[in-house]
Amino acid sequence: MEKTKPEYGVPAERARRREMQQAVAEYAAKHGLVPPLSMEELRDHAARVTSQSSLVDYVMVLLNNEVWRETVASIPYSRRLLLLPQCLRNFADCPATLDEFGLLCEECGRCNIGSLQALAEDLGYVVLVAEGSTVVSKLLVGGKVDAVVGVSCLNALEKSFPTMADGAIPGLAIPLTIDGCVNTETDFEHVREAIRLKSSVPWKNQVDTQAIHAIVDGWFAEPFDCATETERIAYDWLLKDGKRWRPFLLACTYSALNDGSTDFPADVRKLAIAVECFHKASLVHDDIEDADDLRYGQPTLHKQYGIPVAINVGDLLVGEGYRWIGEVENNAAALLRVASANHRTLCVGQGEELIGTERNRSFSAQQVIEIARRKTAPAFGVSLLLGAVAANAGPELLDALHTFSESLGIAYQIRDDLEEYTSGEAADLRASIILALTPTPEGSVPYSSNYENTGLTPQVRNRLDELMVVEKASQLLEHYKNEALRALNPLQSAMLKTLLRRVAAKMLDLV
Q1: Strand-strand pairing, 80-84 and 126-129
Q2: How far apart are CA 305 and CA 326, in angstroms?
Q3: Cβ(161)–Cβ(36) below 8 Å
Q4: What does the pLDDT look like over 353-402, one tens digit per residue?
Q5: pTM, 2 dp
Q6: Comparing C-alpha atoms, which of 90, 82, 136 is closest to residue 112?
Q7: pLDDT (tens digit, 9 = 90+) per residue, 34-47?
Q8: Measured distance CA(240)–CA(8) in Å, rounded
Q9: What is the rounded CA–CA span in Å between residue 509 and residue 471?
């Protein structure tokens, strides 16, 4: 007979727990829930499953388990982590010792930790008996494991949800049935079932980003044919260093919408080259507009060849981008509409910022956000949209990707402004959300638009800190991050949804 203790959110009776698991499975199937689910989605669906507020957190755990079940089952045991809490041991006479990774269980039989560890390790799991998620995060980021089966109290599980969701980490969580941090208990049969979970279906819930990186790098490894000196300069610049982030995103989006295939048609390569042409052209023009001397640790193009030649090379790369798109055989008109709309929007956003700073205008917060929507979002949004169009995506998916890109672009720009300000590297606050969030920028903050004369003085920084601009900007960042993730809710491709949540997390330094 199971022990009982004052309820903390998990039904004490195994039969009741199984009944709720079945109800959640039926609900998830009926509504076609696709992982990963955000905290907001989990809580909303949980409230529909149960009317008892005390059970909502538990149902959230069950929902998260249900949507990830098939994914975890398809991941090889050797790529899974079993995480057990130290509180399951018998503290009175436990002979185990601790190291920097957690408890070194001796499998003495005084508690169930040893038997669970033995079962998991025999199957090939990595096993940790530890508190917290620091080690787990390192294993996940380091590529050591791809899924987590974890046991913990509801409170700890709820705290771990945002991290798991941001990283789109497949996982199954088994809550403790008796909480209290010492001599706790869980449904050990449920844990054993989760450990043994196995599917004959190949694992296809993630894009093979490592393989795609190599493929994309290969597209830019060979020199292009150039008939003139101008073309040679342009394509030498195209092949300069960089992370190829935009071509990579385009290829990943196409792959995610084709069941993870890395057998790319020639059209995808052409589109990848096109978005890199657009990107490298924008860098040439940005460096001139910002009077930058270095790019990739070397002189900028206008420093090497002069401003007239650099402007012309940038213009040529824009033309080359459209030429590459024009050579695509399928969906050519739709692809050109996407590229031209994003190109135009980016230029308008950049222009509004340049004109405003040139005329020493004070930007409102809404104006800064609108500039980011136009200037920052299209820079990577065009890659997602072109990849989706190439994969024959429908209008609803394209709309979702557009909304995601806009909100993520705004969040990214706010994060960038915050980082520059807090690190002390801000060169000019005039078009930054930091200055825009002051009640009346010119009146409240002793800041001159002639930055060369005043700069970010201690007096300015103190006043901005008094106005709590960092806290306000952080709240805005959180808002637009959530808006971006919310745009992914309707997506029916778990692979694309997982990819984009990880893109957002990486861009915003969440994982």
Answers
A1: parallel
A2: 29
A3: no
A4: 999 988 888 889 999 999 999 999 998 899 999 999 999 999 999 999 99
A5: 0.86
A6: 90
A7: 999 988 899 999 99
A8: 58
A9: 17
Strand partners, 44: none
Centre a 10 Å sphere on the Cβ of residue 76 and count the other Cβ atoms it contains.
12
The answer for residues whose C-beta is within 8 angstroms of residue 96's C-beta and 6 or more apart is 89, 103, 104, 105, 106, 108, 129
Interatomic CA distance for residues 382 and 340, integer angstroms: 9
| Strand partners of residue 98 | 103
3 state SS of 97: strand
Dihedral of CA atoms 329, 378, 212, 70 in degrees, nearest 10, equals: -100
Largest CA distance in the chain: 84
Please check whether residue 429 is in contact with residue 470, taking contact to mean a CB–CB distance below 8 angstroms. Answer: no
Token code pair at residue 439:
């009640």
Q: For the residues of 141-161, what is the DSSP string, one character each? A: HTTS-SEEEEEE-HHHHHHHH
Angle (nearest 5°) at CA 500 between 436 and 148: 115
Buried b / exposed e over 137-176, threshold 16 CB at 10 Å, is eebbeeeebbbbbbbbbbebbbebbebbbbbbbbbbbbbb
